[in-house]
Each structure stands twice: as structure tokens, then as C-alpha cells.
Amino acid sequence: MLPLNPDTWSLTLSLVIFALCAAAIGVFGTWITKVVDQLADRTGVGEAVAGALLLGAATSLSGAVLSVTAAWNGHPELAVGNALGGIAVQTLFLAVADFFHRQANLEHAAASAANMMQNALLISLLALILLAPGLPETTVWGVHPVTPVLLALYVYGIGMVRGARQHPMWRPADTRTTKPDTPDDTEAMPSLGQLWLRFLGLMAVLGFAGWLLEPAATRIADGAGLELSVVGVLLTAIATSLPELVTSIAAVRRGALTLAIGGIIGGNAFDTLFTAASDIAYRDGSIYHAIPPTLITWLTLTILMCGVLMMGLVRRQERGLAGIGFESVGIIGLYALGVVLMLTGGS
């Protein structure tokens, strides 16, 4: 039985708890992919919207719980580092998933107006977070004015994503390798009620794992002498993002290509709300103004990664280097640069 006080956890116990939570997130995050794919068909909202609202929220829940808990406990570097690191590594996972689709580059086969709109929304949300530290450090009830703007922009943007799917003003050209979002046979699926119960149950497990990860990560940082921002970006962000890696690969193998891209980009857009929720939980002022310079650099690189992805979605290169698109190569390179800068302190 776990000691109730995390301050008594040894480094070894913290590492074991961290590994077990990461494994649970990976396993249960995989199971939730099929449930969300079936909910997308059952409800008729489509894979792009289901990826943004359901898969993105569900697979991001453990990370959200971790960031909010860290902010509440006075660890803004871990809270923001986990959020921003998760967005970067999940964008990297798209490049990894690209290796598993051999017919053509992933962004070519799964091009859609909804995913383009989601990526534009993500860039806008990240730019707003980047802007916040340069604004006055004024708060109302401990909350910076950027936080409600961030929440409102997300809600407005999701409405635009749904509109882009239902009434697109332009459509990508179909090619022999294009994989459209076509519903599966709903007759063979569980009932809508059963799907929702499974979805909520899996979300509860992911949330609990995220709650346990926060004290484990803090103890690892203390025991190993690491900065919390480094732990957030390179450890907890990857651990809480494992569902996105597993689910994106699983979705590609299932042929749900729009869900694969929509789940990652939609999850990334949802992950920006970690920062907003963390600002509400953080009681020592504006969390945006507690972001260290290394995380500002990481945020800038993440926006650049999203821009490269956007160019790939527009260009729709069918074949590229090593069987993946040019933007996948660029994203891998930018993420590697970010890791180097994080570990060297930008020097």
C-alpha cells in the first residue's frame, strides 16, 4: 500500500509509481481510441470533431490533472512545462504515426478542412500564451485576464472546427491515396449508452493516474536534482502523452486517419487549457509571469512545429524522405533542437 504522504516517498518508489502510472495511461489510453471512433460514428459528429472534443479531452485528462495539481501546490514550472511539453511531443507523435501509414504521407491521405481549422486554432492559442508574459501582471481574484480569453477562444474555435466539417468553404482534392472520414457500420457497435459508460470509466482511470504522477514527478526532480521545467517537458509531458502516441498509431492502423490527426491536433488545442486551468489553481499571481525563459523558448519552437505541420497539410506531399512527409522530418528536427536547448539551458 502506498504511503499517503508523498514527502516520504523515496526516489526509487517515485520512479516505480511514475512508471506504473505511465504504463496505465498508455494501456487505457489505447482502449479509449476504439470507443471514441465508435462514438464519432454513433453520434454523427465525425472523426475530426470527436478527435478534438472526446479523444483530445480524454487522453489529455491525466496531463490536465497533473498540471492543475502542480499549480495548486506552487510548482508553476512543472504545471506549464507539462502542458507545453505535451503539445510539442504530441506533434512529434504525428511524425511517428506517419511511419505507420505506408500508402502515402499521413497529412496527404487525411487532409480535411476541419483539421486545418484545428491547427490554426492551436497556433492562435499558443500565440496568446506567448503574448501573456509581456502583458501587465494584473490579476482578478488571482486570475490573469488572458485566462478567460483563452477559454473563450477555444470554445469559439471548436465551433469553427465543427462548421468547417459541416459546411466547408473549400475541400482538398481527392487522390487515389486520400482516406475520407466514412462512418463504420453502427449496427455491430455497442449501444450509445454503453459507449459513454466505457468512455467515462476510462477517463476516470486516466485522471487518477495523472493525479498520482504529480507528486512522483516532484519527488523525482528533488531526488535527481533536476529542474521542474525539465521534468515537466521531458518526463511528465511524455508520460501523460503516451495515449496520443498509442492512439494515433492505433487509429492509423484502423484506417481512421482523420481521427489520428484530429486526435493529436485537437488534443493539443485542449492542452493549452491546462495553462488556463493552472492559472486559476495557482494562488501566487499570474502563472504566465512565472514561466521561465527556457519554457518561453520551448513555446516558440512548438508554434514553429505547428506552422511546419500547417504547411505540410496545405502542400500534401504524397511521398517524402524515408517514406514520411517533409514536415514530419522538420518536426522531428525541431523537437530534437528543443530537447538540446532544454538540457543545456539554451546555451
* Multimeric state: single chain
Major sheet details = none
The CATH top-level class label: Mainly Alpha
What's the total number of strands?
0
Question: What's the helix count?
Answer: 12
- Strand percentage lies at under 5%
Rg for CA atoms: 19 Å
Q: What is the general shape?
A: globular
What are the secondary-structure elements, in order, as H or E? HHHHHHHHHHHH
Distance between the termini: 44 Å
Structure description:
- The protein has 347 residues and is mainly alpha-helical.
- It has a single domain, classed as A middle domain of Talin 1 (Up-down Bundle).
- Helices cover 73% and strands 0% of the residues.
- The protein is built from 12 helices and no strands.
- The longest helix has 33 residues, at 11-43.
Summarize the structure.
The chain has helices at residues 11-43, 47-72, 76-98, 106-109, 113-131, 146-166, 192-224, 228-240, 242-254, 257-281, 293-315, 326-344.
List keywords for this structure.
about 350 residues; mainly alpha; A middle domain of Talin 1; 12 helices
What is the strand and helix layout of this fold?
Layout lengths: L10 H33 L3 H26 L3 H23 L7 H4 L3 H19 L14 H21 L25 H33 L3 H13 L1 H13 L2 H25 L11 H23 L10 H19 L3
Helix pairs in contact: 1-2, 1-7, 1-9, 2-3, 2-6, 2-7, 2-10, 3-8, 3-9, 3-10, 3-11, 3-12, 5-6, 5-10, 5-11, 6-10, 7-8, 9-10, 11-12
